[in-house]
Amino acid sequence: MEKLLRVIFFSLLPATALAGETKGLNTGDTAWMLAATAMVMLMTPAGLALFYGGMSRSKNILNTIGMSFLAYCLASVVWVLWGYTLSFGHDVGEVIGGLEKLFLKGITPETLSGTIPELLFVAFQGTFAAIAVAIASGSVIERLKFSTWLIFVVLWITFVYAPVAHWVWGGGFLAHDGALDFAGGTVVHINSGIAGLVMAILLGKRRHYGKKAFFPSSVVLTVLGAALLWFGWFGFNGGSALSANGSAATAFLITNVAASVAAISWMATEWMFLKKPTLLGAASGAVSGLVAITPAAGYVNVLGAFLIGLVAGVLGWFGVFVLKKKLGYDDSLDAFGVHGLNGIWGAIATGIFAVKSVGGTPGVLEGNLPLLWVQTKAVLITVVFSAVMSGVVYGIASLLTGGARVPEDVEIEGLDSAVHGERGFNL
To answer: Which one, of 124, 111, 128, 132, lies nearest residue 32 by Cα?
Structure first.
């Protein structure tokens, strides 16, 4: 009788209560991560492609879009072949992942990463690698050979992105130092922003840059691209919780707050100094806020998100309209001004505004001053590594393609017709 009562009692317990005590596949987490992965996928061949494409001149819009589109395709292949194991394989000296998961060896539909299938984790992380390298293209559009770019993508993910991802997320030395990067401020945005800046300097300025006005082909496409990026970023940041829980919900909400505040602060800044509130500025401000909140998304509260976004919009405008002009480099679509600078700001701001009640780690405002040094050190290491290695990778890609820059006549004609034999607009 006692055994019968036990059976009846446990059979009436809610399924969630039992699941909470059992480690294994969680269907709720899996469903959320499937959706988040699809959202992040949308960011590169659609969101970033349109955001960048609309800002380029009409004779180069297809080439610009193609750089993001093919970056996604190539990155997806490289990732499953060797990028994933270099990033998340068994730790080797706290520097790089081992090769035991080369070609995804040993990973089956039943293999788990936490509470989700490891194959899903592979797919989710692969979308991050893809958008990271695609972001860097914004610094060199309208003058970089398409062939050089394709080789650069493969080499950069292998030798630049994968090591940094391992340092922060794969059990490397920055993770052991306690560096916080919830969704990729350091791994994605600092890394790609610095890579873009280095390439822009090595490649040189566009013909007539600074002497002739370059008009965007379609601000409408850029604003639409920004909106798609914004939508995808909910998966980018919310999905980085790797679970359908309060951390994902927090990241979801504060991502929206930071982007909204940054869009307003960028527009207000340009309205003050340039006397015109532009939609291009508002869209760029929103992306600046999204970048800055990325490393902090699982560690700060709404007030922290507000302050991070407020600074991000002003900092992004400063990088685009003041710093670039003062230093004289041609960062075509401001990958460094928007992603690099705000990635740095977001990483450092995480050390300041992190609160124990959200992510479990207090920041400077709650008395944990050492965290600021940990975050700053991670930034400095990533900047130096990315600058040096991106330069090396660019040099190799340039050598293999007989020089990285398109001929002058191709630049004059436009890369759409000269390289691809197509036109973005037939008006």
So the answer is: 124
